[in-house]
Design a protein that fits this description.
By secondary structure, the chain is α/β, with parallel strands linked by helices. It is built from eleven helices and eight strands. It has an eight-stranded mixed β-sheet with strand order 1-2-4-3-5-6-7-8, with helices on both faces.
């Protein structure tokens, strides 16, 4: 009788033959668009941000919906953290929880307003108040500025969400750098607030080892996030760190000893197979389960980095958003085990 592996994967998900024509067409278009991108590290991060909002990049300018500005105090007297509050549209149901969302952009680009459609989808699909955090960006504000702002926002919500929204902080999550910051913040909360428990984490294609796992080191495509861009993002975020420094758990959550953090929340890991950070989601999700905690790893055939923010013309994006909504609705009704 052949031996059966204790760990199994859905192999067809990872085969090139599983990539649909639709997804391949979108990827080809993204690669072509990227050829005309001016590269933020060449024009400067501040200029690139201006170009993004002005619609001067090959990629579409952000869509702004009906979110409201919201501010939280930081640890520095007199400096607030800008946030974006998105509520469900015309819902007769009471708000069921607060979702703290941390945007991506390599700790360098985008802001709390640039992901309105995603925020609205989460708010509507799970009847949540969603707060997008405008943390300080590199290179103007390198590590630990961004993580500190996310921690300050989370701690403020722990203390004030009930009085502000009638419900407590229930979920946290983000994409790319936002996934990374979500885990750093979660691990801090487990140590500083051991009696507080999130209902779940939503982690889209995050980077959890800043010294880079093989899928990132070996990524030979220019699809959305080439290796050159990853290297510039990390250097902007942590300018003077060695590879060994980058493996500190305070920087790379992949190296945290999860078994020593107590009860971790259920985590949803989402990633596409054409994402250089694929290893990060798979390995972090497996470590999560190995430590005795619930993790769901959802892999999307051929999907590129950032695909959950693509429009309804990409089936994988729609499916990923539906998976997220189902995860959130399921966890809203689950009693948190202390």
């Amino acid at each position: 009788m052949p031996h059966q592996s204790d760990i199994s994967i859905n192999v067809p998900k990872f085969l090139p033959s599983s990539i649909s024509e639709q997804t391949q067409k979108v990827n080809d278009q993204l690669i072509q668009m990227g050829q005309n991108d001016p590269k933020w590290w060449k024009v400067g991060a501040a200029k690139y941000r201006e170009m993004y909002w002005a619609g001067e990049l090959p990629f579409p300018a952000p869509t702004v919906l009906d979110g409201k500005p919201f501010h939280m105090p930081s640890r520095e007297k007199g400096r607030d953290i800008p946030c974006r509050l998105m509520l469900p549209s015309e819902s007769e149901e009471p708000i069921k929880g607060v979702f703290m969302y941390i945007h991506g952009g390599g700790w360098t680009l985008f802001d709390e307003v640039s992901v309105d459609p995603y925020l609205k989808n989460v708010a509507n699909s799970a009847t949540l108040a969603v707060l997008s955090i405008g943390y300080r960006l590199a290179p103007e504000n390198p590590y630990p500025a961004g993580p500190e702002d996310c921690i300050d926002a989370a701690e403020w919500l722990i203390a004030n969400a009930e009085s502000q929204f009638g419900v407590g902080l229930s979920f946290m999550g983000g994409g790319s750098a936002g996934g990374h910051l979500s885990l750093l913040t979660t691990f801090h909360l487990r140590k500083a607030h051991p009696n507080f428990h999130l209902r779940g984490l939503v982690l889209d294609y995050g980077i959890y080892d800043l010294s880079l796992l093989p899928s990132a080191r070996n990524f030979d495509s220019t699809l959305i996030l080439p290796l050159e861009a990853i290297s510039h993002f990390i250097t902007a975020f942590i300018p003077t760190s060695s590879s060994q420094d980058l493996r500190s758990p305070s920087i790379s959550p992949f190296y945290a000893e999860l078994s020593k953090l107590g009860s971790l929340p259920p985590a949803l890991f989402i990633c596409g197979t054409k994402d250089p950070l694929l290893d990060d989601s798979i390995m972090m999700g497996i470590k999560w389960m190995m430590s005795g905690h619930e993790a769901v790893i959802k892999i999307f055939e051929g999907a590129a980095h950032g695909f959950t923010h693509f429009g309804d013309e990409l089936d994988a994006a729609v499916e990923a958003r539906n998976v997220t909504a189902e995860f959130l609705r399921e966890k809203i009704g689950v009693r948190v085990e202390v």
